[in-house]
Amino acid sequence: MNAQSDDDVPGRTLGRGGIPGPGDGAGDRPDSTGWFTTSLGAAFVRGAVELEETEHGLLPHRLPAWARRQFPDGQLAMVEAQPSGVRVVFRTRATAVELDVLPTKVIYEGTPPRPDALYDLLVDGRLAGQAAATGGRVLAVDMTTGSTVTRPGPVGAVGFDGLPDRLKNVEIWLPYQEVTELVALRTDAPVEPASDHGRKVWAHHGSSISHGSDAESPTTTWPARAASLAGVELMNLGFGGSALLDPFTARTLRDTPADLISLKLGINLVNTDLMRLRAFGPAVHGFLDTVREGHPTTPLLVVSPVLCPIHEETPGPSAPDLDRFGEGKISFVAAGDASDPTRLTLGVIRAELARIVGLRAADDPHLSYLDGRSLYGEEEYAEMPLPDDIHPDAAAHRRMGENFAALAFGSGGPFAAAR
Predict the structure, then answer these.
(1) Which of 300, 392, 313, 388 is nearest to 350 (CA)?
(2) pLDDT in tens, 63-122
(3) Is the C or the N end of the chain the one with fewer CB within 10 Å?
(4) How many whole angstroms separate alpha carbon 259 and alpha carbon 366?
């Protein structure tokens, strides 16, 4: 789904429902080197709720400005601006493409450097290149204190060449783990907006696992993999550490045009030890009520947490494993009191979500439930254990995407009509 402009004015956000402004068209005159420069705008960006104009270009957001004003949480502010599922899409004969960007790269103090985040380039839906961006800011995170420091850096670029010399659809998927400001697109032939060919829009909300944590690249997060297999347009509202039944997230889903909606709920409520059982049930009902205000008959799938052994029977909060951290490895332990029956574990959450969906489905035939362990369960854990005891690895992301595509979009699944 495209984020569309309603005000192409410096200092404003570009929201849904408007007409692309002057910067949204292709540059039809090459410069002295033979390159065409396109100022990116809503006509070329999919998967974002809003585009914010910055001093450098456009910053994709996955929560609208009104929602961003309602929370003081730096973690959520960072992850909603990390463009999981956001892609630059256009049609062209170009054989070489360069995208100027200002990324914000995250490092964790005291641990080995993480690999550079990848941009995936697709030609007519097939992977045709991968590259990392030069330049950019650095966000240094101290896991022991939670403090952060941002170090400035320059605008950089990511480039691809050797593309087929024919008219084609090109997609550049942005890294799910780096806040990315879009500066300009350069090509050796003119570009124009591409059609979505009438594909259904699937809006998905979840935690860091849905956001993409530990996937190999932006098109291999499990939601992106499932969307590709099912032939649908992805709107990924997975927010690392922040699938917390926030009312502004429910209202964002309510207001987002979508043909299919899924909600993967639970693990972050355990991670953060945010609420007790008494509050959880009404909060789920309220979240579903709000989504249904905008999508009364849209197929709506509630997905419970995938297998996570440390929290199956032990509540949160999750805490860094300091012994492994001292070895330069990020890992987590369950730090909650398992003797307290009011605390949320994954087993408790799955039972409650199944009960709530069963109760509501009597009056809502378009509401369904999926046990997350059917995406990643005991079999997957034995083959692909969780490297940090919470997040699936790259291979597990692919398997989860394949499992979701089969169960949700396959014959008899709640989203089968979308195919």
Answers:
(1) 313
(2) 999 999 999 898 899 999 999 999 999 999 999 999 999 999 887 777 777 778 999 999
(3) C
(4) 12
Q: 9: which 2 tokens? A: 């004015």
Q: How many CB atoms sit inside 10 A of residue 214's CB?
A: 19
**CA dist., res. 128 & res. 149, Å (int):** 36
**Residues 137-164, mean pLDDT to the nearest whole number:** 87
Residues, the chain, total? 419
Q: For the purposes of burial, counting CB atoms within 10 Å of the CB of 382, is it exposed (0-12), middle (13-18) or buried (19 or more)? A: exposed
- Residues 253, 203: contact at Cβ < 8 Å? yes
| Amino acid identity, position 85 | G
**Alpha helices (runs of H) in 19-176, residue ranges in sequence order:** 65-68, 74-81
Q: What is the pLDDT of residue 327?
A: 65
β-pair partners for 126: 123
| Paired strand residues for 107 | 140
d(CA 206, CA 213): 12
Find out whether 186 and 100 touch, Cβ atoms under 8 Å. Answer: yes
Q: How many CA atoms lie within 13 Å of 127's alpha carbon, on the beta-carbon side?
A: 13
Query: How many angstroms separate the CA atoms of 369 and 302, rounded?
Result: 5
Tokens of 86: 């956001």
Residues 168/97, Cβ–Cβ less than 8 Å: no
